[in-house]
Design a protein that fits this description.
It comes from Heracleum sosnowskyi. Belongs to the UDP-glycosyltransferase family. Pfam families: Glyco_transf_N. This is Glycosyltransferase N-terminal domain-containing protein. InterPro entries: Glyco_transf_N (IPR058980). This protein is mainly alpha-helical. Helix content is 59%, strand content 5%. The protein contains 7 helices and 2 strands, in the order αβαβααααα. It has a two-stranded parallel ribbon. β1, α2 and β2 form a beta-alpha-beta unit. α5 crosses α6. The longest helix has 21 residues.
Length: 164
């Protein structure tokens, strides 16, 4: 059964290769105001294919109802994109903390470990700096999605591209 699944995935990927060549770019749910250097790098790698960063879209505001994605940043980074997101938030943007010991895979984290992480965020100079950066990110993102902002300009560019 596993071999059959692998074969189907390989077959699917081969079929997609034709469509990838026809692609004129990629659309991302993020903002150049936060990840601009990354998008410049992607532009170079994609050999002229356009990279549109038209977000970020907030799933809570889009749905206007509670959603499990609402607190995604508070989840334990266990699988898929969560490990990359944890690295982005803590290492690159330096706007969060890793709960030590959990990366060893223990299901139970002692209260002292949680207490230390909360103190780091709420009662330290490092935590103060993280909160300042969070406010700066928030401001940059709000400006990017406002009229004339970089994400709004990217969205207009994407719409113009697909309706040409």
């Amino acid at each position: 059964m596993a071999k059959d699944s692998q074969l189907r995935v390989v077959c699917f990927c081969r079929k997609q290769k034709v469509h990838v060549r026809k692609s004129s770019g990629h659309l991302y749910n993020t903002s150049r105001s936060i990840e601009g250097h990354y998008f410049d790098f992607l532009q170079e790698l994609q050999l002229g294919k356009k990279q549109w960063a038209i977000g970020p879209f907030n799933p809570v505001e889009i749905c206007k109802k509670p959603d499990e994605k609402r607190h995604k940043c508070l989840e334990w980074p266990m699988h898929s994109d969560q490990l990359r997101n944890a690295a982005l938030i803590t290492k690159v943007l330096q706007n969060g903390t890793i709960v030590e010991d959990w990366d060893e895979g223990n299901d139970l984290v002692e209260s002292l470990i949680i207490e230390n992480a909360v103190k780091k965020l709420m009662a330290s100079r490092e935590g103060d700096e993280m909160r300042k950066r969070a406010a700066q990110f928030s401001d940059a993102i709000k400006k990017s999605v406002a009229e004339g902002g970089v994400s709004r300009i990217e969205l207009d560019s994407f719409v113009a591209h697909i309706t040409r």
